[in-house]
């Protein structure tokens, strides 16, 4: 090859280099793996007695996480139980009615009042006969008649007392007493539920990602103490500018590389969502171009990726 040919080859290589440098770089996206996490918090305020799990431990739904000690819950349960006993006693009394001795006393009182009324009636008839004969005054007759009527009214009242004792409480009173007992049962059930919450159990299965509780600490209501991550429910998150979004349509597939595992995997896009305005790509020249929004792309692995962990990078070229 002559000198001219060499110079031509060098010029061609330099020109090719300038052409390559002027070409836009190939699209390159970097995301990271995410997984479903559950922050588990107690429903009652109590002091932590024992932590039953450690970070990295695999658990099943229903496994014990934290044991808590709450004297307040125990005190409320004792109060509710005492209220239940009192309400049940009132209900039993209403259902059973008066005691046999009380019914017997009411019956004897009625009989005594009826005997007095019968005697007053007989006395009145005698005085009435004497009045007709002119042997007693009208005043005496009126007094005898008034005494008879008063005694008869007392006998009627005594009979009503006896009937009430014999028939027991009214239906409305029985229903009210029974309802009061059921209401207290509800209070006990509520306190029992609070006591059950002192044994904090996991509603989900997975791996314990973090344990924020320590024995002896006071755990406030609603503050997470354990985080559980489900490694079977993972996805990758990419931030993609809208002018490059066509290859990430919902339902499409792409291949990503996980540098931490030195392997590739196929992903299925299932979600697109626009990010807030502060994440928008903005043009540098106000007279040209437009503001390009940024979208969040979520995609699940087509098959489980063994060894994948939340936070691992995924590179898509």
TrEMBL record:
Record field: transmembrane: none
Coiled-coil ranges from the UniProt annotation: none
InterPro entries to which the protein is assigned, alphabetical: HH_YbhG-like, Single_hybrid_motif
Any Pfam family hit: HH_YBHG
Domain YbhG-like alpha-helical hairpin: 68-193
Protein name: Biotin/lipoyl-binding protein
Organism field: Paenacidovorax monticola
